[in-house]
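Journal club side-thread
Mid-discussion, someone asked how the predicted structure for our own chain would compare to the paper's figures. Pasting it here so we can look after the session.
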Amino acid sequence: MKKIFLYSLAVLASVILASCNGDYDDWAQPQHNPQEEAITIPGFTATQVVQSIDCSNVTTDSVSIFTLSEAALPEGFTLDNARLEIIPQGEDNAIKKTVNASIEGKSAVADLSEVIVSFYGKRPIAHSFVAHVYLNAVKNGDAALIDAGKFNLEMTPKSPFIDSNYYMVGLMTDWKLSPDFKFTHSDADVYEDPVFTLVFTTKEDDQYWKIIPQGNVDTGNIWAVENEPKGVVGVETDGDDAMSGTLLTTTSKGEKANAGKIAKAGTYKMTINMMNYTYAIEQIADYYLVGALQSWNEKDMSCLMTAESAMVLSFTTKWTGGANLKIWKDSNFGDWNNAFGSAAGDGVSDAEGKLKVNGGAIVCPEKNAYYTFSADFSTMTYKWTKLANQNPTEFEYVALIGVDGKWNDGDDIDLKQVAPHNWYKANVEIPDGGFKIRADHKWRDDGNWGFSKGQNYENKGTLITSGVSGNIPVPAGTYNIFFNDITGAYAFIEVK
């Protein structure tokens, strides 16, 4: 046997010398078809040292996969450029993925995880692969390819636990589960799209919150930790009011997620990325139109978009003149580089389209017609909807009545019509007590707007018009008043 082994090594040396003809010089990379060129050496094989690898549980940067058996090489030869060619088990025709390895048989965990993801995605499920070991025998810069054998290997990608959905609980929900505080998610697999969003409103300052995974809900105990890692999600420091940061999970291992805090009352959007366990909170802003309606005046904030929901806003009017517009967020009003417009370019009059920052002017599909323009800032899209009634009732005046208890004719505080059927007045001082909005300084059923019975006060919403509408209980303060007499949409923006 010894003579046979020595003979094999001599053959190896002769093959190496014969194969080094200069046709292939980059020995740092495997040949395109290494199986056709590879040489086997009797007694020289890669021996598997691990049957299964869960990349999420490996605490080091690399993991040992194989060892090379002892085998003498002809004098002057060294081993170099070890690598694994990996395909899913049973998929012989799959495109092979190459992972570098050390001569000691170690590969980077990140590289292995990337290979798994390329075949099966990021979900942390074990999959079976065939790993084929190749390396080079090198002398004087020339190399021959060595086939060290193959073996089966089970691998799981490096991914955190991500549940199918999440809920916010806190002071605003009385620490109970509420469907109104369920995060939204796309239809994609959570490991392909790990981002969840929630739009919510707090009516008081200092509102504490935590996040409950769907797994806890399914167990019937939202505070469960025994089914780790499906524990309660929160922040490291109790009462942390940061608007972004890192999330962690309460588990049976003794790790504890504390409550975050929303410092100021308002409407917010929370975005959580469960692939990297981070969160970001932003307060929902007010958005204004700028364009032909207000002569493209970069100081005129009279055309407020009203809320259909926290992230969907609209403006209804007769689109006269150029019938064109852009949108400014309140904090960026006057900054043309941060105006939202059409992603398709300037002057687009399509019925719907995509929004982008610093986009082009958006134009109504039909000039001198009544349309509702809607913008969805959760999807960054917009659309135009033509009104069925193209002849809405016209009013000469729309005014506040009952401010400071003054209900007599002549006590009306007139609003200004800034666009057809859109009324506005800035810096109105409102003392305690309610008021209503009426048309043409008289009580008429089609122009007598107020709250419906049992309607709770919100600074934005919709008024009804009829003889049974109730007073609007606006808290004392100074407000910019916005009102649309077609839709009944109102907004009372407090001036601070």
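Post-session note: DSSP finds four helices and 37 strands in the chain.
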